[in-house]
Amino acid sequence: MPHILIAGGTGLIGSRLVDLLQETDYNVAVLSRRASSSGGIKTYQWDPAQGTIDREAIEQADAVINLAGAGIADRPWTPGRKRLIMESRTQSTALLRQTILSTSNEVRTYLSASAIGYYGDAGDTWLEESAPAGKGFLAESTRAWEEAFHEVEKLNIRAVALRIGIVLTPVGGALGKILLPFQARVGGYFGSGKQWYSWIHMEDVCRLFLHALENPDMRGIYNGVAPNPVSNKELVETIGNVKGGPNLIAPVPAFLLRTAMGEMADVILNSSRVSAKKTEATGFTYLFPELKPALEDLLIG
Ligand SMILES: NC(=O)c1ccc[n+]([C@@H]2O[C@H](COP(=O)([O-])OP(=O)(O)OC[C@H]3O[C@@H](n4cnc5c(N)ncnc54)[C@H](OP(=O)(O)O)[C@@H]3O)[C@@H](O)[C@H]2O)c1
Question: Which domains does the chain have, with CATH numbers?
Answer without folding.
Answer: 3-167+199-225+275-287 (3.40.50.720)
